[in-house]
Amino acid sequence: MPMVRRIVIARVGRHPAAEDLIQETLVRVLAASPRIDPGMLEPYAIVTARNVIASMWRENDRRERNQHRVVDLRPPAAPGEELLASEEQSAVEQALARLSRRDRETLLAHEVSGQDTRSLASKTGSTAGAVAAQLNRTRARLRVEYLLALEQAEPPTDRCRPVLLALSSGDRRRQRDVDAASHVLRCEVCARLCQPLMDRGHQRDDEVHVAINCDADIVAARQAARELASRLGFSRTDLTILATAVSEMTRNIVRFAGTGEVVIELIDGPRRGVQVVARDTGPGIPDVDKALADGYSTYDGLGLGLPGARRLMDEFAVVSEPGRGTTVTMTKWCQEG
Ligand SMILES: [Zn+2]
Q1: I want to staple 47 with a disulfide (CB 3.0 to 4.6 A). Which of 191, 270, 282, 304 is the partner?
Q2: CA 196 – ligand 1 centroid, Å
């Protein structure tokens, strides 16, 4: 957290958006951290901050350029979208062409024709595990080649592909071996591409998991809840209320359980809202009813957060097993205007 703050402040100073940029960078760095070598963390934070800041400038620039168009009532240009789709398609074709024939055929048989790894293995006299590993390597390579094709640029050095591949496959040892950390700081192309390569893993975009271990994770969880909820058109006040409840529950995990997880999920009907599940494997709460009662303050103050958070949310349930842990499930509904 102090590292990310220092990096962002060094670039934008006391810009009003600095806090948002710090949080945005932090969320991305935390999301990627399981897949990058610890020595890679700072360089990754630096290039991520750079990318986040650059996209903010681009966005501002676009808004300024479009300011005179506020009275233009024509629908947004659809031809642009068509162009985008055809660019993506040709990038996929180019990326596939870059794979070895064997890798390409296995990948297509699996992803397009739906053949499982066991039947693929029996065809080549291999094992299902070996085929699965081969598929993972092929996917990692395909992601790299796809992004390079979209950039329409050959990587500037012959170290780029090995670095990008190590990042794409999340192989921390390879990242150390090819010194990915120093390369992404010096290479502009790899600095740009490492972001989308590491951002994958969010397969579902209506659900976010945040592992909770330290204070920085509280910020990440709060930010993730805000981001998801803002898509549903929550009011500013409700966004703040939700973020506060998430902070309270996450803080409890850090303070009393040490580690846990927060899962934030959009509920899309019949009523729209956000559900938050905060789970830990801590000491548990001996008497939940008592802990939920207002003014409850024993157990080192754990009860303080619970009645407070319950008042902020529309639905609130606590399940706790002494010695095993606690799960809090809470929901905030979107006030449809
Ligand atoms: Zn490079």
Answers
A1: 191
A2: 14
Amino acid of residue 317: A
Gap from CA of 171 to ligand 1 centroid (Å) = 17
- Ligand 1 centre to CA of 258 (Å) is 39
Calculate how far, in angstroms, residue 163's C-alpha sits from the geometric centre of ligand 1.
7
| HSE of 64, CA atoms in CB hemisphere, 13 A | 6
Ligand 1 center to 65 CA (angstroms): 32
Q: What gap in Å lies between CA 116 and CA 132, rounded to an integer? A: 9
Q: Give the mean pLDDT of 293-312.
A: 65
- Give the lowest-confidence range in 48-57, 84-93, 107-116, 132-141: 84-93
- Confidence label for 133 from pLDDT (cuts 50, 70 and 90): confident
- Ligand 1 center to 136 CA (angstroms): 22
Q: What is the per-residue pLDDT across 142-190, written as a single tens digit (0 to 9) for each?
A: 889 988 988 887 899 999 999 999 998 888 889 999 999 999 989 989 9
Distance, in Å, from the CA atom of 40 to the CA atom of 173, rounded to the nearest integer, reads: 11
What span, in angstroms and rounded, lies between the C-alpha atoms of 277 and 232?
Answer: 18
* CA of 337 relative to ligand 1 center, distance in Å: 49
**Ligand 1 center to 29 CA (angstroms):** 20
Closest CA to 166 of 37, 50, 34, 45: 37
Q: What's the average model confidence in pLDDT over 209-236? A: 87
Altogether, the residues listed in the chain come to a count of 337
User: What is the pLDDT at residue 56?
Assistant: 78
Cα 4 off chain centre by: 16
Query: How many CA atoms does the CB half-sphere of 164 hold within 13 Å?
Result: 29
Share the mean pLDDT of the chain. Answer: 81
Are 272 and 301 contacting, i.e. CB atoms less than 8 angstroms apart? no
Question: Residue holding tokens 């479009």?
Answer: 66
pLDDT per residue over 310-332, tens digit each?
888 998 888 888 888 888 989 99
